[in-house]
Write a structure and sequence with these properties.
The protein has one domain. Helix content is 79%, strand content 0%. It contains 4 helices and no strands. Helix 1 runs antiparallel to helix 2 and helix 2 runs antiparallel to helix 3.
């Protein structure tokens, strides 16, 4: 596996552990939990999406019979999505303390940019191959 694939999978597992710990804390804290959004996004964007990105970077080039379009863009996606997700978590912590919605909004845009990098890379990697000529 490529290094970027391994790093996406590692990050996914780290976010999964953190989400589990937040879930345990949430169950003990009661019905009003100020970090529910962090728990949810660490599960969905951290664990699930990063795992999907890592697996996609490994499998989709092989399925399409093409090289990954841009390894630099894959690394940009890795860094940007992690910065975005961690920044969103910081934004929610600050929001729970009375400020931080601007921080959350900024890092939500950063997260979206990282996801967009992944999408562009995958579209360019798996673009349709020409149809083989029909047998006569």
């Amino acid at each position: 596996m490529s290094k970027v694939t391994v790093w996406f999978i590692r990050c996914a597992m780290i976010y999964f552990v953190i989400a589990i710990l937040l879930g345990i804390h949430m169950s003990a804290a009661g019905p009003v939990y100020p970090y529910l959004q962090i728990h949810t996004h660490f599960n969905l964007l951290g664990w699930m999406s990063m795992m999907i990105f890592g697996v996609a970077y490994h499998i989709l080039p092989r399925f399409s019979g093409r090289q990954l379009w841009s390894e630099k863009l894959a690394y940009a996606s890795l860094y940007i999505t992690n910065i975005g997700l961690l920044g969103m978590a910081l934004g929610w912590i600050l929001t729970a303390k009375g400020s931080g919605s601007a921080v959350h909004t900024l890092f939500s845009v950063v997260e979206g940019l990282g996801i967009f990098c992944f999408i562009v890379n995958m579209f360019k990697t798996v673009k349709a191959a020409p149809t083989p000529p029909a047998k006569k």
